[in-house]
Write a structure and sequence with these properties.
Strands 3-2-1-4-5 form a 5-stranded antiparallel β-sheet. By secondary structure, the protein is α+β, with helices and mostly antiparallel strands. The chain starts with 5 loop residues before the first helix and ends with a helix. The chain has 2 domains: 146 residues, no CATH class; 34 residues. It is built from 6 helices and 5 strands; from the N terminus they run H-H-E-E-E-H-E-H-H-E-H. Helices cover 61% and strands 11% of the residues.
């Protein structure tokens, strides 16, 4: 059995921090969809969500966590969320909840309070059922939490480095797919 060094553990925590924030927020919002704010199931999720946000900010040396949903791509602080397929599906579910309120981005300050975080989750949950609640959320001034709709056709939604990285990843993926198709076609015809 191998044990992780302190540097490896820090690197691992840093890599997992964005996914933890997204899943923690999703769990809190889903609990608010089912229960009242005073319910123990909701209350128990507030602290882990706050911890995930503060851990992210500490690990990434950032003041806040900004989550942008662009279709099937999720950005956390302007970087593509790198996670497994299941995690990406969960992240997209949070994006769908925001989209129902005409929102595509949420930002949490690293020092957001429990009441403010719970207030956001409650308003997002209420916005799923009531268009007026969704409208209130879009214009709400929640200390430590901000939301907005980002027009994805705007040039600044991807930083130039990420834009080129994203284009390179898509191009490489397409090339590898074509290569594998040719390989299997040749294999099927007995040419290998």
């Amino acid at each position: 059995m191998t044990s992780l060094t302190s540097a490896d553990r820090t690197k691992q925590e840093r890599a997992l921090a964005p996914a933890r924030v997204v899943t923690s927020v999703l769990k809190l919002v889903k609990a608010c969809l089912l229960y009242d704010d005073s319910n123990q199931a909701v209350q128990q999720l507030v602290s882990p969500t706050l911890e995930a946000i503060s851990t992210f900010c500490l690990a990434r040396e950032a003041d806040s966590v900004k989550i942008l949903f662009a279709g099937d791509i999720v950005f956390v602080n302007r970087r593509v969320l790198r996670a497994g397929r299941d995690m990406i599906m969960l992240a997209c579910e949070l994006g769908e909840l925001l989209a129902r309120c005409n929102l595509s981005e949420v930002t949490f300050d690293g020092r957001v309070g429990a009441g403010e975080l719970l207030g956001f989750a409650r308003q997002l949950a209420d916005g799923q059922r009531d268009p007026n609640a969704a409208e209130r959320l879009r214009h709400a001034e929640i200390s430590g939490v901000s939301v907005r709709w980002v027009e994805l056709s705007a040039e600044d939604w991807l930083p130039s480095m990420e834009r080129s990285l994203f284009a390179r990843v898509v191009r490489d993926y397409a090339a590898s797919t074509l290569f594998m198709r040719r390989f299997y076609a040749d294999l099927e015809q007995g040419e290998l």
